[in-house]
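QA checklist item 7 of 12: single-chain prediction sanity check.
[x] sequence parsed
[x] length recorded as 467
[x] structure emitted
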Amino acid sequence: MNENEFRIVEQLYGVMIIIIRGFFLQALINTFISEEIMDKAKKIVLSVVVTVEGIVLFVLPVEMTGAWTVISFLTILTVFFFYDKKAMPHIFFVYFLWLNMFFVWYIINVVLSDCLSNWLIVNIDYSKPDALSFFYRNMIINICLEIVFLAASLVAIFYCIKKICRLKRNMSWTEALFLSIYSAVSYCIAYMIAQVMVVPLNEGVFILLDEKRNLRIALPILALLIFVGEMTAIATWQRYRRLKEEDLLLQEQIQEQEYIRKRIEYTEKYHDQIRTIRHDMAGKLMVLKSFLEHGKYNDASEFLSEMDVELNSSSMRFSTGNPVTDVVINEAAFQAEKFSCEFTCDFLFSSDKGISAVDMGIVLNNLLENALEAVTGIPADKRYIKLSGKLKDNFFLLGVENSFDGKIGRDNDGRIVSRKKETKDGDQHGIGLKSVMRIADKYLGTTDIKVGSTVFEVKVMLQRGAF
């Protein structure tokens, strides 16, 4: 084997490294980004594009150190910026994790490759005519082992990540930056090490591992520490997200219990009113009988009119066709009246809509509670709440519109939440819209939020029989 053939093998080695890294990127994207955000075919296309960029930049006859890192980063961010911005924190973290894990391999590989190459060439007799051929052959063996080591290392790393990340969880920008800072710092350390491994001098070459032989132990330890630190950070994030989801579920259960409690109280109140009316009715009938027996028909008529007004004032303002939604809506209407807020309702929901009445009650209770909270922050003459709900084809469309002061509260994920989350008992608030979204997802529906300068509107679409 001559030098030209060896240079071709070196080029193939570089291409193989890039291809293996492309497969690893594909695996990481599959691990952290769900099929709902990006289907498998598009993930493959993205990984192929990044891999092809790396190969093209590698084979160009000019020095392109660091170019693939920058171009691939811009490519990935651009794709997700236009495709789905919600996944940008995930891909931001995945990208730096991808770089970091490669350099973990690189640091260890530098030491192993140096030891192996020294062992392969130490016994070559350079006085023989075919010594150079043996040298190139041994270097090719070294190259092949490096490729195998890279593939095995990335498979092992991916297995560890997969064991930690059993579920695809949401990630905020705060979490992505927290996780990526460690990866970025590790990347910079590894990059600086790579730059000083072999340094051309005016007279000879500076080889770091020959000058500082103790680094043959220190560098692999550094790489393992970087890897363990990265895995620990990911595991900590997964645990944080799991606890956060469990807390959200607990708060939703508390909210459901609170809704049931309110329903019971509201029902008891109306039962008390009915018992009072029945108790008073006997006396009033005696008075009416007296008017009729004495021929005082005008007085009897006026007395009946007063009784009709009293009965109407004790009845529910809105009838929706379902006792559960009747309770929630009429209670909200009663509260709106106390706040001097105009309340209009065009809502019909019978029991055969293919949607749980309890789920519908929770959605209504959350949206109307948030609306009532919002209108209290503005002057009375500007307060209004509009509720609508109807069945269209196989979908139930629900909408709540209300006036508000234009101020929006957001959580760490950037999602809109009730501003009650800012209060001392905020841990038990700010989950209303999340509960609505969860129920919408349960029925394969959607939640659409529109925020104006003075108008807040939420539209929820639920699919019948989806659950």
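[x] summary fact logged: The chain has two domains: 3-244, 317-467.
[ ] second reviewer sign-off
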